[in-house]
Amino acid sequence: MNKQERLYTVEIAGVSSGKLFKNIRTNKYLFHSGKGLKGYTDRLTETEIKQKDERLWQFAVPVEEK
After folding, report:
1. What is the mean pLDDT of the chain?
2. Rounded to an integer, what distance in angstroms lies between the CA atom of residue 47 and that of residue 66?
3. I need a labelling partner for 39 at 20 to 30 A (CA). Which of 19, 23, 24, 65 fits?
4. How far apart are CA 31 and CA 21, in angstroms?
5. What is the DSSP code string of 3-60?
6. Is 40 in contact with 17 (CB distance < 8 Å)?
């Protein structure tokens, strides 16, 4: 991943398992309602989100940098 690429989270309101997570080792995606899953990240690049499904991009929210 390019260091300058912006990161996003994808959360779909009204879906019981509404946040998109990516498995760091297998690169497989799943929706989950939890805050975090061991071995998964919810911080995704635009490319990763669109690779999963272009329609998810409309739900992308930029991650606030601290």
Report:
1. 89
2. 23
3. 65
4. 6
5. TT---EEEB-TT-TT-EEEEETTT--EEEESSS--TTEE--B-HHHHHHH-GGGGGGE
6. no
Q: How are strands ordered across the β-sheet holding 29-32? A: 29-32, 19-23, 40-41
Based on the number of CB atoms within 10 Å of its own CB, is 49 exposed (0-12), middle (13-18) or buried (19 or more)?
buried
Q: Indicate if the pLDDT at residue 62 is higher than 90.
A: yes
What is the per-residue pLDDT across 15-45, written as a single tens digit (0 to 9) for each?
Answer: 666 899 999 999 999 988 877 689 999 999 9
Q: How far apart are the first and last CA of the chain?
A: 19
Cα gap 20→31, rounded to integer Å: 4
Q: Facing residues of 20 across strands?
A: 31
Closest by Cα among 14, 15, 23 to 44: 23
